[in-house]
Amino acid sequence: MAERSDAARNRAAIIDAARELVAEPGELKLSAVARRAGVGQGTLYRHFTTRDELIRALYDHEIDDLVALAHTLLAQCPPDVALQRWFDQLAAYAQVKMGVIAAVEASVWQDISAQTMGKLAEALTALLDAGRDQGALRGDVDARDVILLSWFLAHLEADEWGERAPRLLSVLLDGLRVR
C-alpha cells in the first residue's frame, strides 16, 4: 500500500531535519529532530522507532541521491564535468557521513557501510565508463580506486573543510583525466 501524502511529507521532513542536525556538534536527539521537522514525537516514532533506524534512513537517502545524481549529470554535461560536479556532492555527503559515523554504534555502521559501497561503485562506474568512452578519463582506474582515494574526506577537520576539500577533490579529478 502506498504511503499517504501527509505521511510521506512528514517522513521527508524528519529526514531533512536529521540531515541538518547530524552535521551539528553533539549527540543527535530524536526530540530535537521532531522539533526541527515540525512533527510530534509520536509521528517521528511511527516512522522511526529508534535513532539508528532514522540514521540508516538518512544515510540510505543520501546514497540514493548520489547514485541518481551521477546519471542526471551524465545526461546534462560531459563526463569529466559530471564527475567534478558529482565529487562536489560527494564532499557534501561526506560531511553528513561524519555525523552519521559519530551517531551510530560500530555494528550498525558496518552494516550501513557494506550496503553503501555497491551503490557508490555503481554510480562511479557509470561516470568513469562515460569518461573513458569519451576519452576524457583514464582507463586504468576503477570505482574502488576512486572510493579508496576519496576516503580522505572522512579525515578532514571541520575548520579546514572549506579550503582543503575542494582542492583535494580537484587533485583527484586531475589524476583521473587523460593527459
From TrEMBL:
Where does the UniProt annotation place the signal sequence? none
What Pfam families does this protein's entry cite? TetR_C_43, TetR_N
PROSITE patterns recorded:
HTH_TETR_2 (PS50977)
Q: Which residues bind DNA?
A: 29-48
Q: Does the keyword Isomerase apply?
A: no
One GO molecular function term of this record is: DNA-binding transcription factor activity
Q: Which InterPro entries match?
A: Homeodomain-like_sf, HTH-type_TetR-like_transc_reg, HTH_TetR, Tet_transcr_reg_TetR-rel_C_sf, TetR_SbtR-like_C
Instruction: Please name the SUPFAM superfamilies in this protein's record.
Output: Homeodomain-like, Tetracyclin repressor-like, C-terminal domain
List each copy of the HTH tetR-type domain by range: 8-66
For this UniProt record, give its keywords in alphabetical order, as a comma-separated list. DNA-binding, Transcription, Transcription regulation
Which PANTHER family does the record cross-reference, listed alphabetically?
A: HTH-TYPE TRANSCRIPTIONAL REGULATOR BETI, HTH-TYPE TRANSCRIPTIONAL REGULATOR RUTR
Q: What is this protein called?
A: TetR/AcrR family transcriptional regulator
Q: Which organism is it from?
A: Mycobacterium yunnanensis
